[in-house]
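INTERNAL AUDIT FORM
Audit reference: QA-55
Scope: verify that the stored structure record matches its stored sequence.
Auditor: D.O.
Record contents follow.
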Amino acid sequence: MAAIRVVANGTPYEVPEGTTVAGFIRSRGLDPAFVVVEHNGEALERARYEAVVLAGGDRLELVRAVAGGGGFGGRARPDHFHGDVASERTPRSDRRQRLAAARLYVVTAARADLPEFLDAILGAGVDVVQLREKTAEARDLLRWSEAFRESADRYGALFVLNDRADVALAAGADGVHLGQDDLPVATARDVLGPDAIIGLSCHRADDYADAPDEADYLTAGPVYETPTKPGRAAVGLDLVRHAASHVERPWFAIGGIDATNVTDVVGAGARRVAVVRAVTQADDPASAVRDLLRALAPVEDRE
């Protein structure tokens, strides 16, 4: 039988023509049920592993998502394979309770001082942290996720990954955040299972009416213009007022919110906010977190 060459996790392999993704995984001593696959740069649904036939030149990234299977390339556990995911190490049945109680959500890219930054903001009271790196490779996302997972565990916070349900599963994240044009929420639920948190960005009133039940939380924004969403017009406080009146599940106002305008957002009905630059670009991120939390506290609790 003729052979073709594919590259998996940077290593070339000769495989027989007609080999499926599932067949390749098994040939490496792994169980497809325990492996997340990126095929030619795109996440591959596990339900398609048996159907997708490899072609010469195909590129695969395989990440062992949960305990199971054997080694890869002759090694019992490659460095970028994660064995027991955090959700197996630590019970996370209270994810939705913590989400319901959350007030402040910080979205950040990877940065040189990532462990110190995360410890500072989580120690100051941030409830949810999201890793957002739109163009990063799966391997880098997994590497950065280790710091997020460790810090979130230390402070009892939720760790969410932007866009990539497959990497969120492999990294042991608490969930994934999706945009309107990203992976469908139902598909992300199939990948992550029933216990994960799934968030969905909403920009107009119709988005709330159309939001799938599988989405655990929604957003309202961008409230103000922000460079993190180039080309998307600010929606203003009217959408915040609409969400406050119509949305029953947890939701976060987002977009250009900082210490100078957060009281206006709260006045429009928001009880939870998500921020980027207000914390990530602050000279003292922990102090910025405390200022935002004071504005979000009930009036009787404010200092």
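Auditor finding: record pair retrieved intact. Residues 3-64 form a domain with the Ubiquitin-like (UB roll) fold (CATH 3.10.20.30).
Action required: none
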